[in-house]
Amino acid sequence: MALKALNNRALLSLEDLACLTRAPKATLLRVLDTFQRFNLIERKQKLYKSTVLLQPLNSENSFQQVIRSTLFNLCLQTGCTCEWYIYNDNKLIISDREEPENSEISIKAKIGFIRRTDRELEAVVRIACAAGLFRISPQIHYEIIKEGRRIPVAPACAKRQIKKIKNLATYDRSFNNNGIRRYAAAVKKNHVFSGILAIAEHYTPDADQFSSQKFDLLQKAVSQMQQLI
């Protein structure tokens, strides 16, 4: 996180920040410009300096601030809509989200959207299952999307897919019928499940070239969240 790096050092150049955060320079420039607009940092010649002091956050209100900040930064870094899911009353619900400014394509799933767990075995549902929120039902035949087609998945096959998930993070290889695919990862607070952070990416011809990079950014965002909470 650029702001955290600046908090730990007196003055840093763009090159320094790129090395510390491992983020692309173009992305960092957009993030730094945003920080400057909100008076969070100052720029002197080619060096950046933080004007605020970051403090560890522990209260529930502070946790919400961490979620907001994470969604905002991840949205800037990826150029995609980012979502925060909670699990309540046996339902996966979007409780917060961040959408890129001037986005030509709007993601249909808004705050309050309930994601079904008994149909499409997409990334968010797979993570919820891997985190132990619910089990694959032997009575349900799930579906995966492959090359725009819905393909039935038997419960035994669905369980094998869940077992392959590492570090409670995964992403969809194919886009759904709305031209969207998701990257998802579980977030834990004091080793207890807190929610799912997700990136909703719309189809572009070169999307697969950047899938690994976006997956890495998601996992780094989760790691930073868990350090703050």
How confident overall, as mean pLDDT? 86
Described by the principal axes of the CA atoms, the overall outline is: elongated
Helix content: 25-40%
**Beta-strand level of the residues, as a percent range?**
25-35%
- For this structure, the CATH topology of the largest domain is Beta-Lactamase
SSE diagram, text form:
Layout: H1 2-8, E1 12-13, H2 14-21, H3 25-37, E2 41-44, E3 47-50, H4 60-78, E4 81-88, E5 91-98, E6 114-115, H5 123-130, E7 142-146, E8 149-153, H6 155-163, E9 169-171, E10 180-189, E11 192-202, H7 211-228
Antiparallel strand pairs: 1-3, 2-3, 4-5, 4-11, 5-6, 7-8, 9-10, 10-11
Helix pairs in contact: 3-4, 4-7
Give a short overview.
The protein is an alpha+beta fold. The chain has helices at 2-8, 14-21, 25-37, 60-78, 123-130, 155-163, 211-228, and strands at 12-13, 41-44, 47-50, 81-88, 91-98, 114-115, 142-146, 149-153, 169-171, 180-189, 192-202. It is elongated and about 65 Å long.
Describe this structure in words.
By secondary structure, this protein is α+β, with helices and mostly antiparallel strands. The protein folds into two domains: 2-50, Arc Repressor Mutant, subunit A; 60-228, GAF domain (Beta-Lactamase, 2-Layer Sandwich), CATH 3.30.450. The chain has seven helices and eleven strands. Strands 6-5-4-11-10-9 form a six-stranded antiparallel sheet, sandwiched between helices. It has a three-stranded antiparallel sheet with strand order 1-3-2. Strand 4 (81-88) and strand 5 (91-98) form a beta hairpin. Helix 3 (25-37) crosses helix 4 (60-78) and helix 4 packs antiparallel against helix 7. It is elongated.
